[in-house]
Design a protein that fits this description.
Two copies of one chain form a homodimer. Helix content of chain A is about 30%, strand content about 25%. Chain A is α/β, with parallel strands linked by helices. Chain A folds into three domains: about 5-205 and about 370-450, Metallo-beta-lactamase, Chain A, CATH 3.60.15.10; about 210-360, Rossmann fold (3-Layer(aba) Sandwich); about 465-555, Ubiquitin-like (UB roll) (Roll). The longest helix of chain A has 20 residues, at about 525-540.
């Protein structure tokens, strides 16, 4: 006989920050009933995923077990937690999706793009309410983060309870949404908690985190003293911050204008779902144009330097009729996520060229993180007092440090990266197996695998350039006319000071002239030989070995 | 009559950090005799310059005036100051190159790759010695930075003196090379200085800079307490730091091994030129293998995450027979230059997977900058007391802030980005004109222009994928056989669940079947029409519009 067990399997989010997707299962081995916590995306970059639109976890493992999947739970509405819900809903077998009202509003918006009806998402009430999903009873326990209605999940299974922290910080004055509630957590911990699966993002930040409320006075000071137009950017989903910025604008006698789709979408969702009841009146961009600049405050998207967002647009010139100039002030009420530095710096320099004063968070006045720092993580461990701690939501270095922290506090900790299936049933977590995981790319409208070779081919063309070569052979396998080359992404002339295209065509002609009948007859052989000529000649001429497409057309007799 | 004037023209380095190239000229307008200060490179990235090997200033303006170029002066041996000297020597008309001994050693190494003889570079003695170059008398005034023998240039012209700071910091205990010398600068300033052309890199750093000597004790503490193998990376050119690291190793009873070509090259140049006389004995990697790990210290290249440097190699596995493991320590005695974060973080995570403890400079214990912070820049302004300050070596934001600082201290300041020719003859700098500037790419073995479209084509292929389509038409312009497509970097199947290649070929066949004689006869028209079919079908199938190469072959009668 095989006893029932509780398993944990991250498919995304463990060993990276992004595309969160965590599976929990309970039952006899390989018969566990499953739930999925979060289904997020991560963003492509030119370095590793050029041309890709979105990246999400490879859910093949789940797809092979859809009959065991009970439901999906979404902790909060950040893209790395909810972003794939529309793209993967069908692939997941159209499961029941559970989320709190604000998160559900955002999820429904994403699903609507695929024509999925609203009732696919059930709105969950907060803890102590729970949702039954197979052997699990799941409660959405409000926890402070940087977006409304973030929740940790209290996951009860027949033998006990685990707590999945979601993204969190310990904020007693988060301004929007529920404060961190020590008493609630004490009562949740009371029956005993088997495992805390816990956010690791800021485990290297040694000081206690600061409250969202702490940035208000600084922002207000800045906004009221700015001489010209005031423009601020922050994460659109940080609705509390957006309101703080808007209120600072109003207090300084400025009309407030929101710019950027995400900004409007988030405020709208907050108002619709009732998490925000007192957002100041705003003006539309078309009306803002006629307001004196010293009486205007823009709150805009694009804090991470995204090229098409409002911040970047404004840095390049006029956007929706508005243009910044000397004497205006631009505030980054945000931090730059590693990897986005270049885009952000480019915006700062463009504003500098316009004479706009840019204020960033170098001194920590205008932004606070949404994640628990090390002392707050410790506090959470102690509050929940679980038997074991499973670090999640972090790169390997964060998970490792967090596991060490857990051990140092006297609890079992383990590093489990994507694909590591843990058995949490015993007194310590044990590895139950490893599962093939990876990344799926949304590319245009198609899902492709990160390892399909498609993106690798693109990267190669970007690094090496591309040559198309065409040869026509007649019925006797003799070249008909001259070979023809098209070069793309390669220098036009090289060592011999003649056009590369001509040198290539000449060398190919010569090769064909002396090629033996056997080579000319054999498609594969000919292809290889022609390719080699192109690569060698190009290397000799300009010092690069290009990608080559060989087209040999044979006229049939 | 036209009076003689002094001009300043940055071709690179002003409005960016990298590829420094500053022209000074003296004489009647458009007849000025010229000198070039520094000729550096900057590094490509996948985002904007995939496949490119090196980036340097476009020197077209100088190339059109080679008969007026007197000489080139190199302030120090960092790549962004000396890196292009070999690549552009011939294009610059093989001018006389002047540099101090260590810099000359490095420059000669680069020029040797082009077969240029050693005597192309003259070794200059330090100030008060000077080099005559047309109307200029140029002195290499030792100044502290983060590489041996860095120099500011004291540039005397018939009507006065300007000081080009080069890269500098105010370090009284730089460990290697000359300390910052207040007395020397006071005496240089004494006759009156027209203009200070000044490093702007750290103008936003508000605290006084720290000395190279300050990191030694912290490094020693870390190295002596590390349990397993100790590995440290830093900028290879920071020879003082390399020695500090090596000495810490020796004091902790460890054998020291240098890894990475640049590391060896820099230490070798330092010893050869006498700037370093007391470097500890080192062991070779092949001997290091047999030394117990707790008695070993590696000093390695790759502090910026470069994929092929020693740090990255070690993070991936065995390198030159050595492999790190649990209990070893890896130190970044460096800061991460913006844009390099992802590569560095990847290394840290790879080491984390091996159980290696990574220590970085988050707390400022193990690295100091080589550039003057704001208070030190102020001190330099006051020490030189020039009539005007021209900020250089900075992005636009740095130049603007530095010019403001100069004005606030009561001196004329001006933002002059690449291509801005300043006339420094009057009491304030004035803009004498704008010159077309830009970037040249070393691509393989060929120089191409940044705006030639070559790299743009590569980026497009990386973002959009590529389709080659071949059609053969007979003597009557009728298609011979079916059109044929090759797809590269695109999903293989899309909406219709058939192979994209087949759908494309089918749609192209249909198009050709109904195309009128006029279209089939006209190469340009046919090309456009076929391209449109490919792009539209691909868009319908997979949601992307690819780059297309159309090959129409016509069999002649």
């Amino acid at each position: 006989m095989t006893a029932e067990r509780l398993i944990y399997l991250p498919l995304g989010g463990a060993g990276e920050i992004g595309m969160n997707a965590y599976v929990y299962g309970y039952g006899a081995p390989d018969k566990e009933r499953l739930i999925l916590v979060d289904i997020g995306v991560t963003f492509p970059d030119m370095e590793s995923s050029p041309g890709v639109d979105l990246i999400m976890a490879d859910i093949s493992w789940l797809k092979a077990r859809l009959n065991r999947l009970e439901a999906v739970f979404i902790t909060h509405a950040h893209e790395d937690h909810v972003g794939a819900v529309g793209h993967l809903y069908e692939a997941l077998g159209m499961p029941k999706i559970h989320a709190r009202a604000f998160t559900a509003n955002i999820a429904r918006g994403k699903m609507a793009e695929y024509g999925i009806k609203e009732d696919a998402v059930s709105v969950a009430s907060p803890w102590p309410a729970t949702v039954q999903a197979g052997p699990f009873k799941v409660g959405f326990a409000p926890i402070s983060h940087s977006i409304p209605e973030s929740s940790a999940l209290v996951i009860d299974y027949p033998d006990g309870r685990v707590v999945h922290s979601g993204d969190f910080k310990r904020d007693l004055t988060p301004l929007v949404g529920e404060p961190f509630d020590d008493d609630m957590w004490t009562s949740i911990a009371k029956p005993g908690v088997k495992a805390l699966i816990c956010d690791s993002t800021n485990v290297f930040s040694r000081n206690e985190g600061r409250s969202e409320a702490s940035v208000g006075p600084e922002i207000e000071k800045l906004v009221s003293s700015a001489p010209g137009m005031m423009v601020a950017t922050t994460f659109a989903s940080n609705v509390a911050r957006v309101r703080t910025l808007a209120e600072a604008g109003v207090r300084a006698g400025r009309s407030v204008c929101l710019m950027g789709r995400a900004m409007k979408r988030m405020v709208e969702a907050s108002v619709t779902t009732g998490v925000l009841t007192d957002f100041p009146a705003v003006v539309q961009p078309e009306d803002a144009v006629s307001i004196p600049r010293e009486n205007l405050m823009l709150i805009v998207t694009g804090s991470q330097g995204e090229r098409r967002a409002a911040s970047a647009q404004l840095s390049r010139g006029k956007f929706l009729g508005l243009e910044l100039k000397e004497g205006d002030t631009f505030l980054f009420s945000s931090k730059t996520i590693p990897g986005n530095e270049k885009g952000v710096i480019q915006i700062i320099n463009s504003f500098s060229e316009k004479g706009v004063d840019v204020v960033d968070d170098a001194d920590g006045h205008y932004h606070v993180s949404g994640h628990a720092n090390r002392p707050d993580i410790e506090m959470m461990h102690n509050l929940i007092d679980p038997q074991m701690v499973i670090p999640m939501h972090g790169e390997h270095r964060h998970l490792r440090e967090h596991a060490k922290l857990a051990e140092s506090l006297g609890r079992a900790g383990i590093v489990a990266v994507n694909g590591t299936m843990l058995d949490l049933s015993g007194n310590r977590p044990t590895v139950a197996g490893y599962v093939e995981t990876g990344r799926s790319y949304l590319d245009g409208r198609v899902m492709i695998g990160a390892l399909d070779g498609i993106v690798r081919d693109r990267i190669r063309m970007a690094l090496n350039g591309h040559v198309t070569l065409t040869v026509i052979l007649d019925e006797e396998d003799a070249p008909l006319g001259d070979p023809w080359c098209d070069i793309r992404g390669l220098a036009e002339t090289g060592r011999s000071n003649a056009a590369l295209q001509e040198v290539l065509e000449e060398d190919l002609s010569q090769f064909l002239g002396r090629a033996d009948a056997k080579t000319l007859r054999d498609d594969a052989k000919l292809d290889t030989a022609l390719r080699r000529v192109v690569r060698q000649t190009t290397k000799d001429e300009i010092g690069k070995k290009p990608e080559v497409t060989v087209v040999v057309s044979r006229l049939s007799a």
